[in-house]
Design brief:
It is a single chain. Strand 4, helix 7 and strand 5 form a beta-alpha-beta unit. The chain is of the alpha/beta class and 133 residues long. Helix 3 packs antiparallel against helix 6. It has one domain: 5'-nuclease (Rossmann fold), CATH 3.40.50.1010. It has a 5-stranded parallel sheet with strand order 3-2-1-4-5.
Amino acid sequence: MVCLETTFMIDLINGRISIDYLEKNFSKKEIFIASPTILEIIRGLNLESNSKNIKPREEEETKRIISLFSVLDFGKEEAILAGEIEARLSNEGSIIDIEDIMTGAICIKNEEILVTKNKKHFEKIPDLKISDY
């Protein structure tokens, strides 16, 4: 089972990767997205600094694509793990975005492989299984 990270979803929304890629590489029952990924995508759509780059109908297309996937939520166990990961990284002086830590914790707790273009970034999270594309 895999969890698609924000970079993958943005590439999918913008047509840089196709649904065909998913169909060729994964069973539909095996593909998820994490709730923090939705947060990151919707935030990006609504930031004033991005407004000039948003194409007409992009918000509708984004919501349509998000609706194609089952969502893994950030619950209590994931929150505890994310807090531990963030503290460890902070103690080491290795900071990454909290949404990425949350996504990593969700993947670890759900035994998912994270599919991302940002492999080097996520390698900082121990026990996280990663696949790049």
